[in-house]
Amino acid sequence: MRIIEGAGEWTPPAAGAANDWVENLRVPDLSVGTYCIPAGGLDSQSPHTEDEIYVVTAGRAKIVTPDGTAEVGPGAVIFVPAGEEHRFDEVTEDLALLVVFGPAYGSRAHGSAAAQDD
């Protein structure tokens, strides 16, 4: 067992950064991280090669995918399949997301995991 300290907690992005991504845990079959976007911020991520679950722990925004748009807030759980375009838009309150990737983030990437923005 392991308690994952800080996972899902709001952290303001570094000066000059649009958002903040921190990987909190990595094992071969999954990874867990925290993604934060400040109110009014922009989400510039690209589709991922892994399935993804977001749990909104704080803030409010809209999630936009080819299937539609939905308002999300604390407690919302969102599944995004591998390869699907998605972004958070209209961030009205500082947004903190607990993110779970299966398998681990970047493990299916063709090239560097750093090439994927999250």
Automatic annotation (TrEMBL):
It holds the Pfam family Cupin_2. InterPro entries: Cupin_2 (IPR013096), RmlC-like_jellyroll (IPR014710), RmlC_Cupin_sf (IPR011051). Residues 35-101 form the Cupin type-2 domain. It comes from the Bacteria. Coiled coil: none annotated. This is Cupin domain-containing protein.
